[in-house]
Amino acid sequence: MRHTANTVELYFTVLSSYTAMLCVDALERNGVRPDSGPVVVTGATGGVGSVATALLSELGFSVVAVSGKAEGETKEWMGRLGAKEVMARAQLEGEHK
User: Fold this and answer.
1) 70 versus 56: which is more confidently predicted?
2) Helices 72-81 and 47-58 sit at what angle, rounded to 10 degrees?
3) pTM of the entire structure?
4) Phi and psi angles of residue 45, each rounded to the nearest 5 degrees, phi first
5) Which CATH class is domain 5-91?
6) Distances (CA, A) of 88 to 8, 20, 34, 70, 85
7) Interior CA angle at 78 toward 95 and 29, to 5°?
8) Domain residues of the chain, as ranges?
9) What pLDDT was estimated at residue 92?
């Protein structure tokens, strides 16, 4: 079977969506609800993270998106996906040893 760029992109989209859905399902099975407080999504600009942000937001969760690319257009895009807050990964990193 020959894989075209479109086929690979489709595989990536399906896999990212499925993985994000499994993460959301695990949260819900463990009792995390929208009224439990904000949910932090790291890697929020990646495939899985962006889908998780959108899914969680649609389900009523308050999402804090964390990314190494948390500025400008990317920050606006995360807001359109439903993130209530967007943080730079550097804000969460501790001192390096």
Assistant:
1) 56
2) 40
3) 0.84
4) -90, -5
5) alpha beta
6) 30, 21, 23, 5, 10
7) 80
8) 5-91
9) 79
